[in-house]
Amino acid sequence: MVRSVPGIGVANGAEARERDEVLTVRDARRRITELIRAAGVCTLTTTSLDGRLVGRPMTLQRADFDGELWFFAYAGSSTVRQLRVNAEVEVGVHDPDGQVWGAMSGTARDDYDPARAQRLWHPGLAAWFPDGPATSGLTLVAVHVTAARCWDARDGRTVGLLGQGGTARGGGPTSGEDDGY
Questions:
Q1: Are the C-beta atoms of 8 and 31 separated by less than 8 Å?
Q2: CB under 8 Å to 172, separation ≥6 — which residues?
Q3: Global pTM?
Q4: For a 10 Å CB count at each end of the chain, is N or C smaller?
């Protein structure tokens, strides 16, 4: 397990080595919510039309994580064109104060819903969308998260939060074998 870090850990020291935490979906979602709130901004990575990975900073929404992340974008943007061709995406987050990094993978779609846009809107988005939720060409990008992991730099532990299909995984340290470390 990892140390108690906003959004991630629950135990430290000998206690962590003696037992493994079993995360419920609710616990995992709460931890992801805390991590994305601490980060504020993420990197959304899509695949370009010629097969290259393309990452760009995106503002994370302040809503509770319910299995999907929502972003504002222009319907004609390269981001939306790319996810219409290949919906597989990766979202990277970083909490600099907690020294925690997270990665969430899943599938994305553009899904404009005026009521949802109104609920998710916050003034920090006005620099990109000057007319708020009524900005011409605005759409929402929904990322259905199917897996989430995080890394705590203070103790080098990796925690699997969600597995395939958004199901909770054990919250204990995962094997470093697939991390390349």
A1: yes
A2: 1, 16, 20, 21, 159
A3: 0.76
A4: C
